[in-house]
Specification:
Chains A, B: Pfam families: Glyoxalase_4. Chains A, B: This is methylmalonyl-CoA epimerase. Chains A, B: It catalyses: (R)-methylmalonyl-CoA = (S)-methylmalonyl-CoA. Chains A, B: It is an enzyme of class 5 (isomerase). Chains A, B: Keywords: Cobalt, Isomerase, Metal-binding. The structure is a homodimer of 141-residue chains. Chain A has 141 residues and is of the alpha+beta class. Chain A has a single domain, classed as 2,3-Dihydroxybiphenyl 1,2-Dioxygenase, domain 1. The first copy, chain A, is 19% helix and 33% strand. Chain A has three helices and nine strands. In chain A, strands 1, 2, 3, 4, 5, 6, 7, 8 and 9 form a nine-stranded mixed β-sheet that branches. The radius of gyration of chain A is 15 Å and the shape is globular. The relative contact order of chain A is 0.20. The interface between A and B is large, with 39 and 39 residues.
Amino acid sequence: MIGRLNHVAIAVPDLAAAAAKYRDLLGADVHHPHDHPEHGVTVVFVQLENTKIELLTPLGENSPVAKFLENNPSGGIHHICYEVSDIASSIRTLVDAGARVLGDGKPRIGAHGLPVVFLHPKDFDGTLIELEEVKPELQPA
Amino acid sequence: MIGRLNHVAIAVPDLAAAAAKYRDLLGADVHHPHDHPEHGVTVVFVQLENTKIELLTPLGENSPVAKFLENNPSGGIHHICYEVSDIASSIRTLVDAGARVLGDGKPRIGAHGLPVVFLHPKDFDGTLIELEEVKPELQPA
């Protein structure tokens, strides 16, 4: 079911400072910030050789990241995202096995313009898992 | 400085159950458990297409993972590991910039038989970062 690790998302209190640290101190390839008002986050991608880090900070009211930062004021790893080739089939398999898909259980369009769902952390050892449907022909070689 | 994401480490209370979930439900390539008494952990590798997940559970007394699981009984993401090509040079750069290397500040041999250090999570947005020295010729293509 799961393919590549698409990204690790890290919630940060100060996006500019976090981005500068990854660029200037860790020497990584850091993209410009991107607002995603529909998801309540501003995101900076850090492109590594084999995957991405997403630095997230809250945007607007009711950001899903705001509560996490209240509980973890220094920031922390928020979720990991695995790629799947057929998200509808993945959801069926998971729900049949008793795993819980968050929200209404249906995929929505994520920050990359592709269908995503989040799985309940209690079903996966305290890890918030995002599944993103990535068609094989869209995957980098 | 940083190259590939070598792995994401997830601390789990029940290693067999976590490994079975990754193998049978998420359909991943899951290796056999490996005891590392010198690091106080038993580890199961989950090999993804582009990186690895390490499922960790405490082994013996004074495991570095035991306290994490006390605070997070369901488990959770424990650390992420970035590869570097010259760990001594990376440590110098980080320390010169004011970042803190845990322990005595010197690399020790990690679970993969390669030199590693851990960086203070407070210096990196609440994220425990491991750096592992991987010579380019040892990296998978």
